[in-house]
Amino acid sequence: MSSNRLSSGGRLQRSQPIRFSFNGKTYGAFAGDTLASGLLANGVAVVGRSFKLRRPRGIVGAGAEEPNAIVQVGRGAAAIPNLRATQVELYDGLVARSSKGWPSVNFDIGAVNGAVSRVLAAGFYYKTFMWPQRLWHYYERGIRASAGFGTVPDGPDPNYYVHRNAHCDILVAGGGPAGLMAALVAARSGARVILADEQCEFGGSLLASRELVGDVAAPYWVGEVVAELSRMENVTLLKRSTVFGYYDHNFVAIAERCTDHLAPGESGGPRERLWRVRARQVILAQGAIERPLVFCNNDRPGVMTASAVSTYINRYAVCPGDSAVVFTNNDSAYQAALDLNRAGARVVVIDSRAEGAAALGAAAREAGIPILQGHVVCNVSGRRNVTGVRVALWNGDISERVHPGINIDCDLVAMSGGWSPAVHLHSQSGGSNHWNADKQCFVPGDAVQAASVAGAAAGDFTSRACLQGGHDAAAAALAACGMAAKAVAVPEVDDVDEHALQPLWRVPAAKDPDRCPKQFVDFQNDTSVADIRLAVREGYRNVEHVKRYTALGFGTDQGKLGNINGMAVLAECLGEDIPAVGTTTFRPAYTPVTFGLGAGENTGELLDPLRKTAIHACHELAGAPMEVVGQWHRPWFFPQPGEDLHAAVERECLAVRNRVGMMDASTLGKIDARGPDVVAFLERIYTHDIGKMQVGRCAYGIMLGEDGMLMDDGVMARIGEQQFYLTTTTGGAAHVLAWLESWLQTEWPELEVYLTSLTDQYSTIAVAGPKSREVLQSLDCTVDLDRESFAFMSVREAELAGMPVQLFRVSFSGELAFEVNVDSRYAADMWRAIAAAGEPFGMTPYGTEAMHVLRAEKGFVIVGQDTDGSVTPLDLRMNWLLSKQKDFLGKRSLARPDCLRPDRKQLVGLLSVDGRTVIPEGTQLVDDPEAPVPVPMCGHVTSSYYSACLQQPIALALVAAGRQRHDERIYAALADGSAVAVTITSPVFYDAEGERQHV
Amino acid sequence: MLLIKCPWCGERAETEFSYGGEAGIKRPLEPDKLTDEEWADYLFNRSNPKGAHHELWNHAGGCRRWFEAERDTVTYRIAVTREL
Ligand SMILES: [Zn+2]
Question: Which of A354, A566, A610, A900 has the largest count of CB atoms under 10 Å?
Answer without folding.
Answer: A566
